[in-house]
Amino acid sequence: LPIDSEHSAIFQSLPDDAATWDRRVRKIILTASGGPFRTRDPRTLSEVTPEQACAHPNWSMGRKISVDSATMMNKALEVIEARWLFDLEPERVRVVLHPQSIIHSMVVCRDGSVLAQLGTPDMRGPISYGLSFPQRIESGAARLDFAALSALTFEEADAHRFPGLHLSWAALRGPEGSTTVLNAANEVAVAAFLDRQIGFDAIYRINADTVDAVNQVLSEQAAGKDPGAVDLIWINGENFFTLRQADLLYGPWAETIPNSTLVNWENPAVAYDFGVPVGGYESPWSSAQLHFIY
């Protein structure tokens, strides 16, 4: 059972019989508040501070997820989750901005009907649903007062303002492992931003550059070409140079990853770890790992 509010809303709106989802559902629509910078001039995003990024207008959340909401990377990851949770092609998972956070997500049926789950922006709702399913219990969340509600509005998710969101579909179209790379890169980039090592607008660039670099290796491996550890180091070395330029990394990165720990090309059926080099930087995320599973 999904607990995230958007996926819980989709689950609650889908037909009971999962075997019928494909023929009865045209697409699903995840709603997004747009975060604190929905109306901000994109040209000023380089000036955003961690405090500003963590000031979400609707939800009270931790610092990491608040930054993800500000970049819309949280929604990118939710798109990836929804694709696998509900076994839908990536093109059938869409996103729309809904600043009021009242409609938590929607299911568009083949006949044109749209089923939605509504509620106050309070995680006690989806959590109580997950705990009590198939029953429903008192959640403690405030009730919706429709008479007091202002208008419910919707907007397109602007790719110029929120480029991170659109990395989800790019990663889903990429070779197997791309979505894991995106998630791991974002973990490191957000931690660096919160530690004031990079700017807010660098988060997207780091995520995109990392996915592009690693995808080149994954594509070669999927095509039956063994890129070898040396090529892997070189390809990612170019990308990590970009990260160093953003002050995320420093020091001789090559010394931080012994060749023998990179990959196990001999047995691609198992999971293996690829260490993210962070030079001499002292932080809790200095040993972050990318997990590739084939």
Explain this structure to me?
By secondary structure, this protein is of the alpha+beta class. Helix content is 38%, strand content 12%. It is built from 10 helices and 7 strands. It has helices at residues 5-13, 21-24, 50-53, 63-71, 73-85, 124-132, 167-173, 178-194, 202-222, 228-245, and strands at 25-32, 93-97, 103-109, 114-118, 155-156, 272-275, 289-292. A 5-stranded mixed sheet has the order 4-3-1-2-5. It has a two-stranded antiparallel sheet with strand order 6-7. Strand 3 and strand 4 form a beta hairpin. Helix 4 packs across helix 8 (178-194), helix 8 (178-194) packs antiparallel against helix 9 and helix 9 (202-222) runs antiparallel to helix 10 (228-245). The longest helix is centred in the last third of the chain and has 21 residues, at 202-222. It starts with a helix and ends with a strand.
Given the C-alpha coordinates, what overall shape results? globular
How are helices and strands ordered from N to C? Answer: HHEHHHEEEHEHHHHEE
Termini gap: 25 Å
Q: What is the average of the pLDDT values? A: 77
What is the strand content?
5-15%
| Count of beta strands | 7
Strand line-up of the largest beta sheet = 4-3-1-2-5
The residue ranges in which pLDDT falls below 50 over 5 or more consecutive positions are 228-294
Number of helices: 10
Could you say which structural class the secondary elements and strand pairing correspond to? alpha+beta
In short:
The protein is of the alpha+beta class and 294 residues long. It has helices at residues 5-13, 21-24, 50-53, 63-71, 73-85, 124-132, 167-173, 178-194, 202-222, 228-245; strands at 25-32, 93-97, 103-109, 114-118, 155-156, 272-275, 289-292.
